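Review form for a predicted model. The reviewer records the input and the model, then writes brief findings.
Reviewer: anonymous (R2)
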Amino acid sequence: MSETTKIIIAVIGVFVVGFIMVGVSKEKPSIEQMEAAATVRNYVAMQGMANQKCPELIKKETGEQVFFPSETKSDKETYITLIWVGENTKTGGFKKASCTLHAALGGISELIIDDKVIIKKKI
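Model under review:
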């Protein structure tokens, strides 16, 4: 066997050992890791739904378009509350709007604009 053949066999052997090591070292995620990932996915879904529905309702009620909330409150599992501070109060806008989404309801459970309750659903 020539030196070139020995080198080629050695390189192929290194690749095979590498693939075997990678295949063996892959672990299933632990229960804690799966729970943490599910919590993050739930929070992202709640925040996405709230960021989609709340601005539409606020625009419908006040005529003012809102984009980014000035404050967010959440327990990261069951609800998220987005709060906007309005700018155009002289032109029919609002001073403060608060919109709460509960995961159990799958939608907006509370909408308060300038201390006036627009939506209030029981959980």
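Findings: The longest strand covers residues 79-85.
Further findings: The beta strands are 71-74, 79-85, 96-102, 107-113, 116-120.
Recommendation: see findings above.
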